[in-house]
Amino acid sequence: MTLPPLTGLLVFQPLKRRYCAECRRGPLPLLVLEDGAPRCLDCADLGHLVFLPSGDTALTRRAREESTLSAVVVRFNQRKSRYERQGVLVEEEALARAELRCLADAEARRRRRVRDARRRAAQDALFAQTFATEIRRLFPGCPADRARAVALHASERGSGRVGRSAAGRALTESAVTAAVVASVRHLDTPYDRLLMSGVPRHEARRRIAAAVATVLRGWTEAGLGSAAG
Fold first, then answer.
1. What residues pair up with 39 in beta bridges, in sequence order?
2. Which residues form the DUF2293 domain (predicted)?
3. 212: nearest Cα among 176, 194, 186
4. To the nearest 5 percent, what fractions of the chain are helix, strand and coil?
């Protein structure tokens, strides 16, 4: 397992029952690895620290600033084959000071979050509109409402869909086409019913490929006919 690229002390949340190699206590909820052997926090001289879960970026940053000694807590995600940050260990007094600092400017940070959310929403709306325009350029026969729906779905922030990829943000023809194909696959073919009936995904795609091509060809040729007229 490759350790996460994090600076400073690392503390692990073990997935299996682990016992301290020094005092033999366990199973350990948190441990430090020293020369490959697990140590409990007390034996690693970190037992006086308190755990602050991830989630509040400002509080975490300030707690680490206030704490002379701190450590990052990570856990291995087996599905993703990587370590993921769970929180930090900091001095209790440092956490208290950080909480006071956060309370002092909580309203200012709330207003900033609102402004940032509005700015992102405006950016997302503009990009979805641009994405829909590109769909209509490539597939002139695609109804305007459908193009907008595809663009909104493909470009949803945090979705991981093609519209949020580098190619999607660049409005490459392959990315835009992929978004349209995905929409046609689910809405204009029996693809979803095939999946629900147990047909493997690749086989289901093979079966509906001709239907997808027919819809795309119709949307493309509609534009060619208009141009010729």
1. 32
2. 134-219
3. 186
4. 55, 15, 30
User: CA-based Rg of the chain, rounded to a whole angstrom?
Assistant: 26
How many H-runs (helices) and E-runs (strands) does the chain carry? 8, 6
CA distance 133 to 111: 33
Closest by CA position to 176, among listed 216, 225, 124: 216
Structure tokens at 141: 């026969």
**Residue type present at position 80:** K
Can you tell me the distance from the alpha carbon of 199 to that of 192, in angstroms, rounded to the nearest whole number?
10
Determine the residue type at 68.
T
DSSP-based three-state secondary structure for 56: coil
Q: Provide the pLDDT for residue 228.
A: 47
Question: From start to end of the chain, where are the E strands?
Answer: 9-12, 32-34, 37-39, 49-53, 71-77, 82-91
**Segment 166-204, tens digit of pLDDT:** 999 999 999 999 999 999 999 999 999 999 999 999 999
Amino acid at 81: S
